[in-house]
Amino acid sequence: MSLLSQLLWLAAPVLLCGLLHLAVLKHDWLPALRRAPLDFGLTWRGHRLFGANKTWRGAVVMIGGCAVASLLVDALDEHWLHCPEAIPYAAQHPARWGALLGFGYILGELPNSFLKRQFDIAPGAAGSGVRGRVFWFVDQLDSLAGILLCVLPVWQPTLAIVATGIFAMLVLHPLSAWVMVLAGLKDRVG
Known about the structure:
mainly alpha
């Protein structure tokens, strides 16, 4: 049960927040933050640092939304699920845990976005050839890597959790992109 409980605390807030983020995108909530890029429009070698799609709206929604979602997971666990305490920090500080997850999610996507902008690869695209396959693979796992890096000071996941997370991301990330295409929020799956 511990593996399942740990996965619940790791994935559920991010998945719930992902649904919130879809609603924010679909209804264009927080439009002023949509127009505020994380890179402030700065360039390096003539290319944007992260591009127009990495905005403060996404950061605020992911960090704040994951914090609220973690509180919801905590309440569900306390009143209904009664899982054994899988991640002590998450159970003791659910909002901080969620904020770490959201921050890690955003942080994990930035290096890949930076490299893609430098190689003139359009946002949401992977590129072509071997480079495209590498970027596609990294796109599936970058947010997980960021999350794991950010929670490392308060929780060290087992190899089983990391392996399960990698497997899940290789399945769930393309599936979520497909849902975003169906919802009209993306032009292509990858």
